[in-house]
Specification:
By secondary structure, this protein is an alpha/beta fold. Helix content is 45%, strand content 17%.
Length: 321
């Protein structure tokens, strides 16, 4: 999930939405993090997972987690800060280890999900009827998620089991090693990607929606030339992209929220929530309305972050100074 991105879109002036040029240092905090996984280490873990079993592969995650907790000061501090806000009480080192483990476990599970080994997992879906009703209209919609939990469990179930047609807006420039590795496991899934910030991005999104596809995007990280808006998240202001709301308004399509939570062991829960039948922005109050819509999204993100705090996979300073 660390690669999924929003796409930027034309944006009006006004209080509440900022030009990216003035907030580069804040918005690109996650982009400055260097990719740590090497192709060799990824291949070793995948070999163990596929030939020796999931239980042993999960056991071998622990030395990797210990190494990362010790050597990644910024990520460790970010984990402390988030868990303290989300849990509402003191945080100890073992909580941070659990946080890192949850992240590593979902990365490992991608290996099985991309290979179509769904029998390994118990997946509970809440709100499936929302998608079914939209499919029956013959038109697509935008699925707006976050780096909370696993998008891959939704993506592979939807595409490989043909539950619903799905495209994803995804930046592949960051974390190229892991992107190439997972793409090689399932080239068919890789073919569902729409790259953001390209001349034909909006055209491809429009074509996908017209073909009754859902277009998935994540709304909690700012990237590239995105416009931004500030929202209250877990008691403090944080910068979020304005792109998801602007894109939905341009496409005149419904928007559905989704959260794919890892619940331990082999259990996942996918939640779908109705967000908007259509987003219409008033020209004179565009910035304020974008901020209001994003704050609604952030409120639901906060709800699920408190429900499953160890599913938060933004290991960088998230809140504004």
């Amino acid at each position: 999930m660390d690669n999924y991105s929003t796409t930027s879109a034309p944006q009006g002036r006004g209080y509440g939405v900022s030009d990216r040029s003035s907030k580069i240092s804040e918005a690109d905090r996650w982009v400055s993090l260097h990719e740590r996984g090497t192709p060799v280490s990824l291949e070793v873990i995948a070999w163990v997972a596929l030939h020796l079993g999931r239980w042993l592969a999960r056991l071998l995650l622990w030395p990797v987690i210990v190494y990362f907790v010790i050597t990644t000061d910024a990520a460790r501090r970010a984990s402390y800060e988030f868990l303290k806000r989300a849990r509402g009480r003191s945080v100890h080192l073992w909580h941070v280890f659990r946080h890192f483990y949850c992240f590593a476990a979902t990365i490992l599970d991608r290996v099985y999900l991309l290979r179509g080994e769904f029998e390994r997992f118990r997946v509970t879906i809440h709100g499936r009827e929302l998608l079914q009703r939209q499919i029956e209209t013959g038109k697509g919609g935008i699925l707006l998620g976050s780096h909370l939990g696993s998008f891959e469990v939704l993506r592979t179930l939807g595409v490989m089991k043909r539950g619903f047609p799905l495209k994803v807006l995804m930046d592949t420039a960051h974390n190229q090693n892991i992107t190439r590795f997972f793409d090689a496991l399932n080239p068919g899934i890789a073919g569902t990607v729409i790259a953001p910030n390209r001349p034909d991005t909006l055209i491809r999104v429009r074509e996908s929606l017209d073909a009754a596809c859902f277009v998935g995007m994540l709304g909690d990280r700012v990237f590239g030339a995105d416009k931004t808006t500030q929202c209250q998240f877990l008691g403090a202001p944080a910068t979020f992209p304005a792109g998801p709301i602007v894109l939905a308004a341009m496409m005149h399509c419904p928007m559905v929220l989704f959260f794919g939570l890892y619940r331990g062991g082999n259990r996942y829960e996918i939640y779908f929530e109705h967000f908007a039948d259509e987003i219409i922005l008033d020209r004179e109050h565009r910035a304020e309305e974008i901020q209001s819509w994003m704050q609604r999204y952030v409120a639901r993100l906060e709800h699920y972050a408190r429900l499953a705090p160890y599913n938060w996979f933004n290991f960088y300073p998230f809140w504004d100074s």
